[in-house]
């Protein structure tokens, strides 16, 4: 293969990987949001993404409710915000003050419930979300970029910056960080810990929906795409749980490594690659790339 | 209420506090051993399956219940146990060598993983084990000459000293073999928990800082516990391989890991008995669901079988219910009921009140 064509191919892989990575990053953002606010880990994040995508599909597709895409997506986001908020209010709040792994097991189980709900309503065969920009491609000097990929990248960047600003500058965001560091102390100084937790769950539901819709614009969805959450989890850990830019970076790394490994290594190795990367990061830097763990000084 | 009169300090760490406890265990063992004469082949096979799950559950219990290390990847150790055992036996080794080696291989693998992984706490460990699981699953597919890859492999039938323990041909023998192994492991486990090693597991679970200040090597203890846990689960996996007969990598899916977690959580974290109760529940539930499905179908005409995944859904709802309302599991509930009867008029409502620990960040350690 000539050098130039080879370079083009790699570039093409990189762009596809980047768009994929953005979606991993967005799901990872959802993890990180909840982790940042309550230091709980929501293993159902991938399934929330799946549910969000299906709700958008149910509202927007021709055969279903048939709303316009631009109306269906915000509606789905709002609905998922409500679902996330409700889940916190009804279920997760009961675990307040329990050991962390109780939440892990609970959310794993919740993921199965979500999958069952989606499967019973929309079935288990792959469905395609109808979008106004399906199949539109841009050509940039020999590299073909689909509009869906471009939108995924842009939306992710904007969302990450917005969320980062929310945690760094707004009063609510700071309160959320405080409550994750020490619930009792922040309760004493007047942070409404419970309300903040519910809000972050809602927010992470909304982010998951955005990820789900972006995922659906790039391919068919079925109730098992929630398993992507595991990969997104690896992304969050690589970046360092609790760091928003870290989550995005982790997602991008995984997104890029996967197609490259798939191109140059056997298929099984490509599937393993995100997890190997994660283990390497965990062993060398246990807190992730943007470590949030500090040794306590006595 | 019975009074135990202790005449020496050794009585404090006795396996059974009272001779009645010992008698109960003996009766239970006798009934289990007589089971082949009492029930038909179908239920005998189910009983063997339950015992195998209990064995695997006990393995996970060492890590989750007694050392406080959550693992989402124990299906990997099941797989290693099953493939090592089947591989060695296919290569001509007898069962009595292949079986312990399978446990040892899974245990060593677990310990090797644990050494870097125990630096990670709580949630990170859970994720790392999940990653290990995915890697092992792919490795199984890659190592086709040994594992049979996607096609799968066969666990040959067991025969010791000329006696057949074939799962189909001599089910009663197979059942007794499983029962014997499970009883031995349980006995060893119960004894381990009253030894200094077992106590140090509990100490690490309850507070790493205080364990360290008492002179316990936390890293070593955690690695040892994880290795033991993986080893016992590996033994369970080897038996599971023989029970299923022919298997490929799909037998050891992520759902098996989660089912195992279900066994220990619903059974009762931190109790050996919990692993058994959980195993009974997880192997009995599909039967109950099947019966329920038929009754619902016959009485209302609603065909539940048209909703795929309803089993998993019911398991999940059950799990959520237990986590929310009875975090100590079935065995914890049983303890509460028993105590209520034992001290009959004196039971108070807050006797088993849970302590709430308000979250302090993991980011400061």
Automatic annotation (TrEMBL), chain A:
Sequence intervals crossing the membrane: 12-35, 67-87, 99-124, 136-167, 187-216, 228-257, 269-291
Give the PANTHER family listed for this entry. ABC TRANSPORTER PERMEASE PROTEIN (PTHR11795:SF451), BRANCHED-CHAIN AMINO ACID TRANSPORT SYSTEM PERMEASE PROTEIN LIVH (PTHR11795)
* Origin superkingdom: Bacteria
UniProt name for this protein: LIV-I protein H
Q: What family is it from?
A: Belongs to the binding-protein-dependent transport system permease family. LivHM subfamily.
Q: Where in the cell is it found?
A: Cell membrane
Chief localization: membrane
The organism's lineage is: Bacteria, Pseudomonadati, Pseudomonadota, Alphaproteobacteria, Rhodobacterales
For this UniProt entry, what's an example GO CC term?
plasma membrane
UniProtKB/TrEMBL annotation, chain B:
Task: Answer whether the UniProt record assigns the keyword Transmembrane to this protein.
Answer: yes
- A Gene Ontology molecular-function term? branched-chain amino acid transmembrane transporter activity
Q: Which InterPro entries match?
A: ABC_transp_permease (IPR001851), LivM-like (IPR043428)
Q: Where in the cell is it found?
A: Cell membrane
Q: Which residues cross the membrane?
A: 25-44, 51-83, 95-115, 122-143, 174-192, 223-245, 251-269, 276-293, 313-332
Principal localisation = membrane
Q: What is the lineage of its organism?
A: Bacteria, Pseudomonadati, Pseudomonadota, Alphaproteobacteria, Rhodobacterales
Topology within the bilayer: Multi-pass membrane protein
Residues folding into a coiled coil are none
**Name of protein:** Leucine/isoleucine/valine transporter permease subunit
**CC per GO annotation:** plasma membrane
Please provide the record's keywords in A-Z order. Cell membrane, Membrane, Transmembrane, Transmembrane helix
**Entry's Pfam families?**
BPD_transp_2
**Is this entry keyworded Amino-acid biosynthesis?**
no
């Amino acid at each position: 293969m000539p050098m130039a064509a080879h370079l083009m191919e790699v570039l093409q892989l990189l762009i596809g990987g980047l768009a994929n990575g953005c979606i991993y990053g967005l799901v990872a953002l959802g993890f990180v949001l909840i982790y940042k606010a309550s230091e709980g880990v929501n293993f159902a994040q991938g399934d929330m993404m799946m549910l969000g995508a299906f709700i958008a599909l149910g509202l927007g597709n021709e055969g279903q409710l048939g709303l316009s895409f631009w109306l269906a997506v915000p509606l789905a986001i709002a609905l998922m915000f409500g679902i996330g908020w409700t889940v916190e209010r009804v279920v997760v709040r009961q675990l307040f003050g329990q050991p962390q792994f109780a939440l892990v097991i609970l959310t794993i189980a919740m993921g199965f419930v979500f999958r069952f709900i989606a499967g019973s309503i929309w079935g288990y065969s792959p469905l395609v979300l109808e979008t106004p920009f399906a199949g539109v491609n841009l050509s940039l000097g020999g590299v073909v970029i689909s509009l869906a990929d471009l939108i995924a990248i842009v939306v992710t960047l904007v969302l990450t910056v917005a969320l980062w600003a929310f945690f760094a500058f707004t009063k609510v965001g700071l309160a959320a960080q405080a409550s994750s560091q020490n619930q009792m102390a922040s309760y004493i100084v007047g942070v409404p810990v419970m309300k903040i937790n519910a809000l972050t769950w809602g927010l992470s539901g909304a982010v998951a929906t955005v990820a789900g819709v972006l995922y659906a614009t790039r391919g068919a969805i079925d109730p098992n795409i929630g398993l992507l959450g595991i990969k997104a989890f690896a992304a969050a850990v690589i970046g360092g749980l609790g760091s928003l830019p870290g989550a995005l970076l982790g997602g991008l790394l995984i997104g890029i490594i996967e197609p490259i490994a798939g191109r140059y290594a056997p298929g099984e190795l490509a599937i393993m690659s995100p997890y190997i990367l994660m283990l390497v990061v965990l062993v060398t830097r246990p807190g992730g790339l943007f470590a949030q763990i500090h040794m306590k000084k006595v | 209420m019975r009074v135990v009169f202790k005449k020496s300090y050794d009585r404090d760490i006795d396996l059974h506090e009272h001779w009645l406890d010992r008698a109960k265990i003996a009766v239970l063992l006798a009934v289990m051993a007589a089971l082949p004469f009492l029930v038909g082949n179908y239920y005998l096979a189910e009983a063997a399956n339950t015992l195998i799950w209990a064995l695997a559950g006990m393995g996970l219990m060492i890590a989750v219940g007694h050392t406080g290390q959550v693992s989402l990847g124990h299906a990997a150790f099941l797989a290693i146990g099953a493939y090592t055992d089947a591989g060695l036996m296919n290569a001509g080794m007898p069962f009595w060598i292949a079986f312990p080696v399978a446990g040892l291989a899974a245990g060593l693998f677990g310990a090797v993983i644990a050494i870097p992984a125990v630096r990670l706490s709580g949630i990170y460990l859970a994720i790392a084990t999940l990653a290990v699981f995915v890697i092992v699953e792919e490795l199984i597919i890659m190592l086709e000459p040994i594992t049979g890859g996607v096609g799968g492999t066969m666990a040959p039938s067991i025969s010791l000293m000329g006696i057949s323990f074939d799962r189909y041909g001599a089910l009663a023998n197979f059942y007794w073999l499983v029962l014997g192994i499970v009883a031995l492991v349980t006995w060893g486990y119960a004894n381990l928990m009253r030894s200094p090693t077992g106590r140090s597991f509990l100490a690490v679970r309850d507070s790493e800082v205080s364990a360290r200040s008492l002179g316990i090597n936390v890293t070593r203890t955690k690695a040892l516990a994880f290795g033991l846990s993986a080893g016992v689960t590996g033994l369970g996996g080897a038996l599971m391989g023989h029970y299923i007969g022919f298997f490929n990598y799909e037998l050891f899916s992520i759902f098996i890991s989660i089912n195992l977690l279900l066994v220990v959580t619903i059974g009762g974290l931190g109790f050996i008995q919990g692993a058994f109760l959980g195993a009974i529940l997880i192997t009995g539930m599909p039967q109950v669901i099947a019966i329920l499905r038929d009754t619902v179908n016959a009485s209302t005409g609603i065909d539940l079988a048209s909703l795929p995944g309803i089993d998993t859904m019911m398991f999940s709802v059950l799990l959520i219910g237990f986590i929310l309302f009875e975090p100590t599991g079935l065995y914890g509930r049983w303890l509460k009921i028993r105590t209520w009867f034992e001290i009959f008029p004196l039971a108070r409502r807050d006797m088993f009140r849970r302590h709430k620990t308000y979250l302090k960040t993991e980011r400061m350690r």
